[in-house]
Design goal:
The chain has 308 residues and is an alpha/beta fold. The chain has two domains: 204 residues, Rossmann fold (3-Layer(aba) Sandwich); 81 residues, no CATH class. It has a seven-stranded mixed sheet with strand order 3-2-1-4-5-6-7, sandwiched between helices. Helix 6 runs antiparallel to helix 8. The longest helix is centred in the middle third of the chain and has 24 residues. It is elongated, with a radius of gyration of 21 Å. The chain starts with 11 loop residues before the first helix and ends with a strand.
């Protein structure tokens, strides 16, 4: 929520002379994934006429954040829609006369009446190779499940979650050391490269190809993850990487409840704290709570501790 982009975007009054006339609204959340696509959108030959966000996604969305600062800089409205399908919310969106809405990390299912507001429809950016890993946490689950590949998909929005016709997609292999942070970065790098063509196709009325949902999967929100519930050291190590850095799993170490940021599998324990599983030992390297035997780490995070 502290993301502060470099404001080298031309204000709306300057950009208006350099766009092709297509009016686009961006819908998202002040996360690095969402903001990367907003900033990429402002570099395209379209007129970004408004931002749309969901106050129910996080309390901070109701206050000053990166989206409010970008909206102020561009001189465009920021709509906070508790229910984008509500009559008042639809009227606010319609008042912007959008040709399209581009969304990334927007947590509401958009129903037909709201989908019909922009002339050319809605474009969603999803960090998986759909139909694999439909749902709100695809990056986490791809790593936690040990998937061999992932991707990013840009598709038309339909009332069913992550099920619309695909306009652009890029797949890539997952690395053995992949974390949620590195996988998100790779999805952004590939996805921003696809944005211009996918949006042009949406504006031109391209139908796209429907994904075969029977060939994919839907995974729910992750909730609280506890390493004590992992069935193996391999699964536990994946959960640590999948949660790094924002959704780190919990563990009880020396009587202290900690979130684990880094860990590795060992066949034999060393002097650092470990969690034992049938297939091996998970060595804990870094947590976000102090306990005996830990020392403060060099980190910008408050209360970050690593083991000596």
């Amino acid at each position: 929520m502290s993301f502060a982009p470099t404001l080298d975007i031309a204000p709306a009054r300057e950009r208006a002379r350099n766009v092709n006339g297509s009016r686009v609204v961006f819908a998202g959340f002040p996360s690095e994934f969402s903001l990367a696509f907003l900033l990429a959108l402002t570099a395209l030959d379209v007129d970004v006429v408004g931002l749309l966000t969901s106050p129910g996604a996080h309390p901070a969305v109701q206050h000053d954040n990166a989206l409010t600062r970008i909206a102020d800089h561009l001189g465009i409205p920021l709509l906070r829609a508790w229910d984008v399908n509500g009559v008042a919310e639809r009227e606010q969106l319609a008042a912007l006369a959008p040709d399209a809405v581009v969304m990334a990390s927007f947590d509401q299912v958009v129903r037909p009446a709201a989908l019909a507001v922009p002339r050319c429809g809605w474009l969603n950016i999803h960090p998986s190779a759909l139909p694999a890993y439909r749902g709100p946490e695809p990056v986490f689950w791809a790593i936690a499940d040990g998937a061999s590949t992932s991707g990013v998909t840009l598709h038309r929005v339909v009332p069913q979650l992550d099920a619309g016709p695909i306009l652009a997609q890029q797949t890539f292999p997952l690395r053995a050391t992949e974390t949620a942070a590195t996988l998100t970065y790779r999805a952004v790098r590939f996805g921003t490269g696809l944005l211009a063509a996918a949006l042009a196709d949406l504006l031109a009325g391209a139908r796209g190809r429907f994904p075969d949902l029977s060939a994919g999967c839907y995974r729910s929100s992750i909730g609280v993850v506890d390493l004590a519930e992992a069935r193996s050291a391999l699964q536990a190590e994946r959960l640590v990487r999948a949660g790094h850095p924002e959704n780190a799993p919990w563990a009880d170490l020396a009587g202290v409840r900690c979130q684990v940021l880094r860990a590795r599998i060992l066949k034999a324990p060393r002097d650092r704290p470990v969690i034992r599983y049938p297939d091996g030992v998970l060595e804990i390297l870094e947590t976000v709570a102090p306990s005996p035997g830990m020392r403060a780490a060099s980190s910008v995070r408050d209360r970050t501790w690593s083991f000596a």
